[in-house]
Design goal:
This protein has 102 residues and is α+β, with helices and mostly antiparallel strands. It contains five helices and three strands. It has one domain: Arc Repressor Mutant, subunit A (Orthogonal Bundle).
């Protein structure tokens, strides 16, 4: 019997799921989905994270191919690579409210 994906896909996907299992990174990705592109300064104002903490999360997301950057003068702007990456977050939110799961 065949599996739905090649075996190595499960290991690679599990690695990305671990990255997505952080609420701050989910917040960042959802912000980028909603706003298309944002600078660090814009994200700091909304998330209330320190610049150092935000930069660490963004570096991890960038290193793993989930966001890309564009430099404009001294500012770096971040953009989500594929907006579908945060769809499970919205689905789980809806399911939790629909079925009142904590």
């Amino acid at each position: 019997m065949k599996t739905a994906l090649p075996k190595e896909a499960y290991n690679k996907n599990a690695h990305i799921y671990k990255i997505l299992a952080n609420p701050k990174r989910l917040e960042i990705l959802n912000l980028l989905k909603a706003n298309n592109e944002m600078s660090c300064e814009e994200m700091i104002k909304i998330t209330k994270m320190s610049k150092a903490n935000l930069s660490q999360h963004l570096a991890l997301l960038r290193h793993n191919g989930l966001v890309r950057t564009r430099r404009e003068g001294l500012s770096i702007h971040y953009k989500i690579v594929d907006k579908r990456i945060v769809e499970p977050c919205a689905i789980l939110h809806q399911l939790r409210h629909k079925h009142m799961v904590v």
